[in-house]
Amino acid sequence: MFFSRRARVAFALFTGVVLLVLYFPLLYVARLSVATSRGFSWPPSGFTFDHWSRAVDAPGPREALRHSLTTAGWATVIALVLGSLAAVALTRYRFFGRHAVNLMLVLPIALPGIVTGIAFNSGFRRIGFDLSRLTLVVAHATFCIVIVFNNMSARMRQLSPSLDEASADLGADQLQTFWYVRLPLLRTALLAGGLLAFALSFDEIIVTTFTAEAGYRTLPIWIFENMFRDRSLPLVNVTATFVVLAMIAPVYLAQRLTDTTSGGRI
């Protein structure tokens, strides 16, 4: 398809405006993290790394970071196990209610976070579970499972059914077929799903608000609680910039792995 010069210029301008709207606030916060001025002043003045050194020594962000890493790590492990098993079951086998199970698996990612959070909060209280780190991990794992499930399902649909037959003809049982044949072909999709699930859990705030125990603050919760305090604004800008930079790596790697995975059909 060919476009006129005027159309190409219009598309380029539109793309530039969209990118500016999306990324200028992030760049602005990053600039404030190294500015000598406090608050959200415009234009930011000065340049210093004092705020970054203070953030490293501050107990609040450091503890919140540890909580975020712990929660995201456990939620990702659960999602990798359950999401992979669900993908195998729903992709390879046909049974009654298969489509309903598939819908229930992907529904948490489609629901608004506040609906999911309220549902979990109410459900835990009704069955007598006090909010704790366990309830937080379980809540995060539900929507992380969707990411792993979608990645694994898409990859498994690309694999030829004849792989299992060829492996069986060579004398391998189902466990050996999975370990030596399927897993090497699925590991990039598994890793990509795990990275995206970790990033999603690490950044989550709404569901965390409703399912975390009192006083247990993840990094997004800490940012939200301190962004309206003038004395904490420099640390908030540093912490928010750190979160953006930290999430670039897993999202980029997941994208690269997904491109590699979908590069050809096996």
What are the salient characteristics of this protein?
266 residues, MetI-like fold, mainly alpha, 0% strand
**Count of individual helical segments:** 11
Binned, the helix content reads over 70%
Note the main sheet: none
CATH topology: MetI-like fold
The helix-strand sequence is HHHHHHHHHHH
Termini Cα gap:
30 Å
Number of DSSP-assigned strands: 0
Radius of gyration, CA atoms, in whole angstroms: 23 Å
Number of domains: 1
The averaged pLDDT comes out at: 79
CATH class category: Mainly Alpha
Beta fraction: under 5%
CATH architecture descriptor: Orthogonal Bundle
Approximate shape: globular
What is the structural class? Answer: mainly alpha
CATH superfamily: MetI-like
Low-confidence residue ranges: none
Describe the structure.
The protein is mainly α. It is built from 11 helices and no strands. The model has no long low-confidence stretch (mean pLDDT 79).
Task: State the gist of this model.
Helices cover about 75% and strands about 0% of the residues. The protein is mostly helical and about 270 residues long. Helix 3 (about 60-90) packs across helix 10 (about 220-225).
